[in-house]
Amino acid sequence: MDRLYHAFGFRDDVLSWITSFITGHTQRVRVRGQYSTYSAVHYGVLQDSVLGQILFLLYITVLVIAAHHGVGAHSHADNTQLYLQYTHNR
Asked: pTM for the full model?
């Protein structure tokens, strides 16, 4: 939310709407017909949502900016590793 506010200028109603979209979710699992208790989902967005894809693109823009400044990145699913290459000359 901080990035949406500072980097993209989302304010007021729009920011409140996005916040309500990504917070307050619960989930449970079913194994052999038995359901677990509900647990809060603290991170992420709903799968297959259009807004989720847009938020993901906004989130990864920092990787494009980092790459422009020589920072490398490896991503897989929702994990990203940033790195700098360094050559030590003696």
From this structure: 0.58
